[in-house]
Structure formats: C-alpha cells, structure tokens
Amino acid sequence: MAKNNVGIHERLQGIGREFVDVSHYIILFLISVVVVWTAGKEFFVIFQKGSADLKDILLLFIYLELLAMIGIYFKTHRLPVQFLIFIAITALSRHLVVDVQAVSDNFHLWLLATISFAIMVLSASIVILTWTAKMFGRPEDYLKDHQVTSTEHHLPCVDNEQSLK
C-alpha cells in the first residue's frame, strides 16, 4: 500500500510541475506579446512625430530588455534578476533625463540626488550579484542535486569505479 501512495504522490508532483511550467510559458508568451505590441505602438508614435527623442529611445531600450529577459527564460529556464535591475536602472535613467526637468527648483536637487543614489545602489547590486555568482555559483545550479526522480527510489547506488572493475 505504501508503494501505491508513493506512485500517486510522484504522479501528482509531476502534474504539478507540468502545470507550473505550462503556466510560466503561457504567461511569459502573453507578456512578450504585450511588450512587442506596446513597443510597436511606440514606434508608430515616433514615426508620426517624425523624430525620436531621448525619452523614446530609452523607453525602447526598456522594451528590449524586457524581451531579452523573457528570451533568456525560454532558452535557459532561468529568470535572471540582473535583467530586472538593468530595467530598473534604465527606467530611473529615463526618469532622470525626462521627468526631473519638469520638477520645481526647490525639489529638483533632492530628487536628482535620490535617483542618482538609487542608480548607484542598483549598479552595486549588479556587481555583488555577478561576483557572488562567480564565487559561489547560482542557486539554480544546485537544483539538480536536490531533485529526486522516481527512478532514484528504486535503483541501488552503484559506484562508477566498482562497475568498471
């Protein structure tokens, strides 16, 4: 009876993993469609104006980074946090270049300093994440070590050196 319960448990785990994987793919596909659609609308606005401002170009870079992040997930099944930080840095840079000019003179300096500090903190976090990944590896690198497949329950452990003798 215990073997029967293990089989049900493993099947339900497999169904759950498949459901999560399919959900990830559907949602990421829909997000990529929305990003491409929105970028297309932005291109249309640029063509109607006849020129592109710096704010338009920076916005297109944000769309490009979003698509690159989604593409990396489809290729590697990893969602790199660094790309989210790059997007945040680009968005803050865009805000710094575009929106800070419209702020009053009294608040201008504090807003400029705060956004600049946030960009520096995000840049430092990229450096730290990259360094720790090189030094210690990424958490997803160790997932395969901790996952147990259904065949591992039933097969005896065989040492490669013993099997060659």
TrEMBL record:
Stored InterPro entries: P_starv_induced_PsiE, P_starv_induced_PsiE-like
One BP annotation, GO: cellular response to phosphate starvation
Topology in the lipid bilayer: Multi-pass membrane protein
Alphabetic keyword roster: Cell membrane, Membrane, Transmembrane, Transmembrane helix
Chief localization: membrane
Transmembrane segments: 25-45, 57-74, 80-97, 109-133
A GO-annotated cellular component: plasma membrane
Pfam families: PsiE
Cell location: Cell inner membrane
Lineage top rank: taxon: Bacteria
Coiled coil: none
Similarity annotation: Belongs to the PsiE family.
Cited PANTHER family: PROTEIN PSIE (PTHR37819)
Protein name according to UniProt: Protein PsiE
Source species of the chain: Psychrobacter cryohalolentis (strain ATCC BAA-1226 / DSM 17306 / VKM B-2378 / K5)
